[in-house]
Structures are given as structure tokens and as C-alpha cells.
Amino acid sequence: MKKLIFSLLVLLCSAGASAQYNPHEVLRQIRDSVDRDTMLTRYERKVIKRYLRWSRLIPSQSILQTAGNMGLVSLGLGWDYGRREQWETHLLLGYIPKHDSSNGKLTMTLKQTFRPWQLKAYKDLYFEPLTTGIYLNTVFGTDFWGSQPSRYPNSYYDFLSTKVRINVFLGQQLTWNIPHWLQRKRKSVTLFYEVSTCDLYLRTYATEKDIKLSDILGLSVGVKMKFM
Q: Most C-beta atoms within 10 A of its C-beta, which of 9, 100, 216, 217?
């Protein structure tokens, strides 16, 4: 067991140094090193690769976002992956103030983002001219339902659910890659904005002549911090 732990530490250090602390590149180099290392037994290779698979579940980002049909404010964790880390998945919890209702409400959002391009703006500053994606949002509480309650006549509502909304968005973002000598627990900070709408708004826009495109679009802003 000591040999296994020592081998894993050596692989982590050597891969981390050569990959310039890119976690995805580190994991790839470790996998390659495990396959090449003749001193490791078959069992040790199997255990190390199992650790590597589980390591993919560790979040690499934190996110704070306002509006966007998620609530007044939403907080969450995220994962970035892909050859150029162009894909992101975020899980957020949000809060809707009570306003005219009796109490506030919690929301949960599962968000998928695609970032196809990244342009170097200045030194460690990078601009991404397009971000796009989709997210599912739900509101906790009895005021919203997943299927039409029995108190309503059949087909009283011509939409399936008030509890889950499908949202699409377009946006842009600006990322500062923190220099190594300034890094503590954060690798980069990203500011972003998104223009979004949901399935119910799109349906209303298509069926109601008086609805304008500006009526169904919403602006959301936020910040992401990458720590892996």
C-alpha cells in the first residue's frame, strides 16, 4: 500500500510540473504514466485509475449569478471539461424574495454551457465572444406543480408543468488567469453576462401578437472562480 501511495504522489508531482497545473492535462499525463510504469502491478494500476475516475467528480469552479429566471441570487459549484475546457456544467441554488407571496422560495438550476472560442485580450486577460447553453430550473414549494392538479379540468392548461422551466441563453465573458505568484486557492476569475429566455416565454411570443421580443428576454450577470 505504501508503494502504491508513493507511486501516485510521484506521478502527481511529475505530471503537475510538466502540465503547468492544468488539472485535465495532469490527469491525462498520470493515466499515460500509469500505463507505461512497469514497476506498478496490475492491481495498483487498477486502483490508481479508479481514483482518477472519482477525481473527475470534484468541482473545479464556484459561481454566483443574479436573475436569469433562477432567482434574485444563485450560488453553486461547477465542472469544466473538454480538450480546451470549453464545456461547463453548474448546479446552483437560488432564492426568490417573497414580494407579494407569503414567503420566499428556493430554486435549483442545472446549467450546461458551451464556450467555443477564447481570445487573448491582454497578458493574462482573455475574452470569450460567445457563450451559449441551456439550463433546467425548478422552484421548490406547493405553488408550482409538475403535472396538472386534479382540481383543474382535463387540458385546462395547454402546458405540462409550472415547476420546471427550460431556458436557453447567449452571452459573453471576460476571464483573468491569476498569475502563479498571486494564486492562493483560485486560478482564475471570470465576469460574465447572459441574455436568456424560457420555453413558456417563447411559446407566448409565438402565439401572442402583442408580445415583443424584448418582453421575453432577461439579462443575467455573474462571476465564476476557478480553483482547479
A: 216
